[in-house]
Design a protein that fits this description.
Helix content is 52%, strand content 11%. α1 packs across α3. The longest helix is centred in the last third of the chain and has 20 residues. The model has no long low-confidence stretch (mean pLDDT 90).
Length: 106
């Protein structure tokens, strides 16, 4: 089973991008032309593994917004959520601002 520690920086970045596409765009990989060769290789490998399904949109349904689609497995969604939570915690602990409660108690 994959863990966050198993993912390279490029894989983690692509996973979070795919998660955004899945949630905000119904699985349409927007601006897929911006995916580089490494991203395409990762997506192809994940598709074979069943971690993230990835493919081309039917030519009849192509639009200016994207020509690829993705569907995350339960594990991919879980790892994306874990990564976002970890990022939120890091951001919170290194923030440069105070809440009003913190300000009033200092």
């Amino acid at each position: 089973m994959k863990t966050l520690a198993d993912l390279s920086k490029s894989e983690l970045s692509l996973l979070l991008y795919f998660e955004t596409c899945a949630v905000d765009h119904g699985g349409l990989v927007v601006a897929g032309l911006r995916m580089n060769d490494e991203d395409m290789a990762i997506a192809s490998r994940w598709n074979t593994e069943g971690f993230v399904k990835f493919g081309r949109v039917c030519s009849r349904d192509l639009s200016q917004h994207g020509s690829n689609w993705c569907e995350l497995s339960d594990l991919a969604f879980a790892l994306a959520a874990e990564a976002r939570k970890a990022k939120a915690i890091r951001s919170w602990t290194t923030r440069k601002w105070q809440t009003t409660t913190e300000f009033r108690s200092s």
